[in-house]
Amino acid sequence: MMKRLILTFIFCVITVLGHAQTKIDPKTIAAKMQWFQDAKLGIFIHAGIYSVNGIDESWSFHNKKISYADYMKQLNGFTLKHYDPTFWAELIKESGARYAVITTKHHDGVAMYDTKKDNLSIVKATPAKMDMIKPLFDELRKRDIKCGAYFSLIDWSHPDYPGFLKDSSRYNVKDDDARWNRFRDFFQGQIKEIGEKFNPDLWWFDGDWEHSAEEWESEKVRRIILTKNPAAIINGRLQGYGDYTTPEQNFPVSRPPYNWWELCMTTNDNWGYQQHDQNWKTPYEIISIFVDAVANGGNLLLDIGPKEDGTIPPEEINILKELGAWNKKNGEAIFNTVAGIPQGHFYGPTTLSKDSTTLYLFVHGKTSGQLMLKGLDNKIKDISVVGTGTKLNHKVVGKISWSPVPGLVYINLPEGVQDKYITVLKLKLDKPIKLYRGQGGL
After folding, report:
1. Which residues lie closer than 8 Å to 400 by C-beta, 6 or more apart?
2. Are strands 422-429 and 262-265 parallel, antiparallel or unpaired?
3. Which residues in the chain land under pLDDT 50?
């Protein structure tokens, strides 16, 4: 057991270090990262042929749950006959999201656009016979939503890629430079294609773990992207040449040590559509995860998995609509804010206005009665409930006139003013927030 724990810890450390942004100076990218920092919410879209049978995207054949041949038969069932990019874009807009990321190619190598680099695309090899990406990007941009392209560096279908199945490999890179160079030309050519066709605002790479930065030529890949669009943002899965980090599924207990970060998370337990997976997160759970990410200075990239016909499961539609309704009511405490105060001052998430003169407190569930705020060395000018404007009373307890230590603030939250998911309180302060972080006494 101890050995297993040690190995798990080592793996986690290696994973974090492997995705560390060691090559990029944050000061050089701060300007282009501003919209991302303000965005707070993105929608991730895992669209692919794996939705036909509702199986693990790419991993199902890699891990031998299904044969590669049977996996690829799904090409014949991918129709997109009800694909409505206008509806998708409207739903994303309604959710409150400021950006969206869609798969342009997963590890299975199936391009969701009309690639000229091979014939493995939904345009050439499926009944859909259409490019998914451009119509969606066009609709998103009409609504001022930034557009992101997921791209797998791995391509387990390409004959010149070394990997294929979990326990096998076509060849060793160091033994066949010519073959590896052909693959690099191929995947870098697709990146150039995507840049020319769609000009993504954000690139969401995946699969970098199978090779080193030198083998991927990560620095060159970054240069290819930024030559086309100097303002493009790149996620941290490019072996040290990304702009931000993106923990997956597991929420960090404390803020990741990066200037910018994003939590990517599913609405149930899988990225792509799987009919058997009915373990949907509730709107409350999604909203609470979202609030925690924002309170820690990050974003939430919330995933949906459309069906093979282009429709979105009703459970995901409901989640996005409920999230949107909550954002419409409470958005001032989320968008264009910064991370809140350190843990321990308030028993819940918090955010701050950019000038730090307004503090937002997030209160879960049906809480009512007195709430306590510790260490606030400010005078409170006004407290109200966001979305309704209801004014609240407060009092300061334990403040001694001759002591610099502030008293405890108790806020009375009456019954009947609670949001059905998370209630937000707005505290207007007399000046930029000042916190007492001492141990009490003199």
Report:
1. 407
2. unpaired
3. 1-21
